[in-house]
Amino acid sequence: MPEKILCADIGGSFIDSAVVHDNSVLLARQRVPTPRDDFQAFALALKTLADPHPGVALHIALAGLQDPETGLCSAANIPCLNNRPIARLLSDLLERPVHIGNDADCFALAESHQGVGRGHDSVFGIILGTGVGGGLVIGGKPVFGKNGLTGEWGHGPFVPDIRNAHDLLPCFPCGCGQRGCVDTIGGARGIERLYRWVGGNDNRESRAILDAWRTGDSAASRAIAHFLSYVSSALALAVNITGATVIAVGGGLSNAADLIDALDIETRRRILRRTDEPLVLCSSLGNDAGLIGATYLGR
C-alpha cells in the first residue's frame, strides 16, 4: 500500500480533495466548484489539484457510475463526464494511475474498513441525502455488478402504482422514469413530498418537518410514519437478500440520530433474522467517508 494517495470526492456542486496518508489521515484538503458542463475545465480543475503531488495516484469517489467493462462513466449531475473513459483520460493527462468508484460504494468501503461496519463481513452502506443511494461490501471488497450497478436499492417500483389510488398510496414519479421508487420518498426531498401528500399545508423543508415530528405535529408525524414504514421495508428486503449485518447510513438525514434510531427499530422488526443488536447505524466517518473509501479502490 502506497504511503499516500490523492483522493477526490466529486459531486455535482463541489470537488473535495485531500492527500490521504495510511488510509485515514487527511492532509492538504481543498474544495473547489465542480465544472459540470465543460470537460476541459473539469480536467484542468483536477490537474490543478494533482500537480503539487507528482506521481501520487489519484482515487476518485464519483457521484456517478463507471462501467467496469468499458470504463465509460455516467453522472447525471456532471454531464461533461457522460460516455467518456474518465479514468484513462485523466491518467494520460495527469501522468499517474487513476481509479474511479461510485461515491456510495466508497462510503460503504470506508465504513466497512474503518467505521461502524468494521469487523462485519457484509456491510450495506446507504446514503439518505437529497435522494437515496447504496453500496454493498462483502469480505472487505465492493460488489460491482453489470454496468457498475449494485446496491441501488432506491430504484425499481416499490410503492404500488394503482390507478385512481394515488391519494391512498404515495406513488410518485421518479427521475429514473419509473413510479414508486424508494428514491422518491426516502431522502430529504422524499420527506418533503410525503409531508405535502399527507396534507401538510406549507412548503417546509425536511429539517423543519423533522422538528415538527419531534413536537408531535400531526402532519409531520404522518409523513415520518410513512417514511419509516416504506424505507424500513425496503431495507429489510435488502438485508434478507444480502445478509448484511450492519447498515451504515450517510447523507444529510444521518445527522438526525433519532430518525435513524427509529429506522433501525422498524427495520429489525421486519427482517427474518431477529436481533437485539443495532443494525442501522449512523456513519462514524461523516464527510470524510468518501475520501477514505476511495483509498481502497483498485486493490
TrEMBL record:
Taxonomy, superkingdom: Bacteria
PROSITE patterns reported in the protein's UniProt record: ROK (PS01125)
InterPro entries named in the record: ATPase_NBD, ROK, ROK_cs
Family assignment from sequence similarity: Belongs to the ROK (NagC/XylR) family.
Protein name (record): ROK family protein
